[in-house]
Recover the amino acids of this structure.
């Protein structure tokens, strides 16, 4: 995981994104202070996290629990967000980091978070991921089952559900995501949930206009995302190590 990071460029990008958030909020008659910018540092090095932190962004998102754990150990002062697919066996890592989980969509995941939080003497925090586009293979709780799912989650000791998250179907035109954002906002309001995570680099302005309180932005801050290095091939028994040593 490596990519050159220019702190000055990141700071300029942060300022530009904040200006766009303020303009979108103004169009919707909202206070831009209601919108939290989450800098998604997926596959970027710890230096990228330090750069946005120095630029005034304390909320940082990660897609992989192990990457979040590693960066949290290296960069203090961050409010961590987990925006990837939740795996039950990684619940402890997220609880230990105090991360807000944006992608809760199963009762098993809710129970794993609650169990690890109770063991740590704390409370896990999560947003329920909803699926409003009716895609067969998509992750997320369908609107028809949301109320029952929230009731089940609220019965889990050690877990607090703070809001909803939505990830609409990809679209070339940001306006195409507006109906999904609007529907998610309606679901959050109807469920009495104050936090709403929606909008990424391509469509965060539309999301802000429709009520987002958290936007997940990576490329607009850091530039194109680096590729994850493939794992090193396993050595055959008896083969020398790459460095020539044992």
């Amino acid at each position: 995981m490596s990519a050159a990071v220019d702190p000055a460029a990141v700071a300029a990008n942060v300022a530009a994104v904040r200006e766009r958030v303020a303009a979108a909020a103004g169009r919707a008659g909202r206070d831009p202070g209601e919108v939290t910018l989450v800098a998604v540092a997926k596959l970027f090095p710890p230096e990228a996290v330090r750069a946005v932190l120095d630029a005034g962004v304390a909320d940082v998102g990660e897609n992989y629990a192990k990457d979040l754990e590693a960066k949290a150990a290296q960069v203090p002062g961050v409010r961590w967000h987990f925006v990837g697919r939740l795996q039950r066996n990684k619940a402890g890592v997220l609880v230990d980091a105090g991360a807000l989980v944006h992608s809760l969509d199963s009762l098993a995941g809710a129970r794993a978070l609650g169990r690890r939080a109770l063991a740590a003497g704390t409370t896990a925090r999560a947003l329920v991921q909803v699926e409003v586009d009716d895609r067969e293979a998509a992750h997320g709780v369908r609107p028809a089952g949301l109320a029952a799912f929230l009731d089940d989650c609220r019965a889990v000791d050690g877990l607090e559900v703070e809001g909803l998250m939505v990830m609409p179907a990809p679209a070339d035109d940001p306006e195409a995501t507006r109906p999904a954002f609007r529907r998610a906002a309606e679901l959050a309001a109807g469920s009495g949930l104050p936090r709403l995570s929606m909008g990424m680099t391509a469509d965060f302005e539309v999301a802000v206009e429709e009520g987002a309180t958290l936007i997940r932005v990576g490329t607009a801050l850091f530039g194109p995302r680096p590729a994850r290095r493939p794992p090193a091939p396993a050595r055959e028994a008896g083969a020398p190590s790459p460095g020539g040593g044992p």
The radius of gyration is 19 Å.
